[in-house]
Amino acid sequence: MPGKWIAAALPALLLTAAAATAQDAPPPGGKETSISFINHGGINNYVPDSKGEGMYIQDNHRRWYYARFFSRCLDLPYGFQIGIKTFGGSDTLDRGSTILVGRERCQIESLVESGPPPKKVKKPRKG
After folding, report:
1. Each residue of 35-72: pLDDT tens digit?
2. In the chain, what are the domain boundaries?
3. Which helix (H) or strand (E) holds 68?
4. 3-state SS class at 11
5. How far apart are CA 97 and CA 99, in angstroms?
6. Which string of DSSP letters, residue by residue, matches 69-92?
7. pLDDT in tens, 6-32
8. Fewest C-beta atoms under 10 Å: which of 28, 39, 108, 114?
9. Closest CA relative to residue 34, chosen from 102, 82, 93, 76
């Protein structure tokens, strides 16, 4: 009897593991780029990745980008708002700019064109 339960649960466990892996996979490499007019509504939305290694940024034209940090940004998933520091007060977000969240400074190593952030995997209900 226990063998039947394990055999029935195994496909569901494998599917959940595959979905979690897909969520944590790095975004596909894209062309290095920049986002202009960030001080004038150039950024529409942002979504931190699941590991704090970067964030997805949507511009006001609804195009998505992925900003990878030099090191993990642990406060990003919990911050209510972010600040952006660019080189010389420029109005362009690009490689080397810094995301400020709480007391943490997260410098952007790379900013590339990307697809939208991965969908969150919903946990099955207990019941």
Report:
1. 998 888 889 999 998 888 999 999 999 999 999 999 99
2. 2-114
3. strand 64-69
4. helix
5. 7
6. ESS--TTGGG-S--EEE-GGG-SE
7. 333 333 333 333 333 334 444 556 789
8. 28
9. 93
